Amino acid sequence: MDLTLPDDTLAAALEALAADVARSAGRLVVDERPDAVEVAATKSTATDVVTAMDQASQDHLLARLREARPDDAVLGEEDGGATGTSGITWVIDPIDGTVNYLYGIPAYAVSVAAVVGDPSVPGGWRPFAGVVFNPVTDELFSARAGAGARLVVGESQRPLAPTACDSLGQALVATGFGYAAERRERQGRLVLDLLPQIRDIRRAGSAALDLCAVAAGRVDAYYETGLNPWDLAAGWLVALEAGVHVGGFDGPGEALTWACAPGLADAFPDVVETGTRRHLEG
Ligand code: IPD
Ligand code: CA
């Protein structure tokens, strides 16, 4: 699989495009959020919901990306998408943290990443430009390959960097849980193993923001099983470019995604990979 990245001029232009479309989708999602958000449909389980705004945000992103980049493919969480011929795919999550959106908890984001390779093949793709935008806090986490990661709020911006944590026992660890009861039970057993070995657990409700939280030093590490490419594409790049160690089995993906401050790179992957093999496989 050819994972050669586009040159930095193109990557910078696509990072700017990602920021522009994520901001406009994010404003749409917030401005048109009804007081009582209704569930429009359910997907994998009764608690895996989609609101009208998930679809509206994706339609908006798709239209804007097709207009700007007609030859690129688009892979999104909701219905619809597009094939392309350029070798670049936009991997988009129109609202990551849909349950938070449903309840009005201000931790949801629009995630937009440009990738090379095939996002359906574990280890067979790589993001090179992308953003995660929280429209409630107006925080834009932005990165492109080789150029670092930044947090942009209004006119100000600062480079992102992980914590200096180097002890598993001191680590504040974010995680998340899937929607299927059987998977949640297994994920709970892994948390049970982990809890006595770390400082504490956080479950914020958006994988994209969790990865950015490691990049911003707001938690020391993160792991989750069962993620889709759209949950992790932009957050993976933001974390990597901030200097976070990111991995999984065969790279970040459905089987396992982990991210940690460099000082935890020996202990943390080992403990979550062992726990995942023990509880989530078979
Ligand atoms: C979910 C969120 C959540 C994670 C789930 C994802 P959605 O995405 O990222 O934090 O634990 O695995 O499916 O459904 O809100 O787009
Ligand atoms: Ca998601």
Automatic annotation (TrEMBL):
Residues that hold Mg(2+) 1 according to the record: 77, 95-96, 231
Catalytic activity, as annotated: a myo-inositol phosphate + H2O = myo-inositol + phosphate
Cofactor(s) required for function per UniProt: Mg(2+)
Tagged with keyword Hydrolase: yes
Superkingdom of origin organism: Bacteria
Keywords: Hydrolase, Magnesium, Metal-binding
EC code: 3.1.3.25
Family (UniProt): Belongs to the inositol monophosphatase superfamily.
Protein name stated in the entry: Inositol-1-monophosphatase
Biological source species: Knoellia locipacati
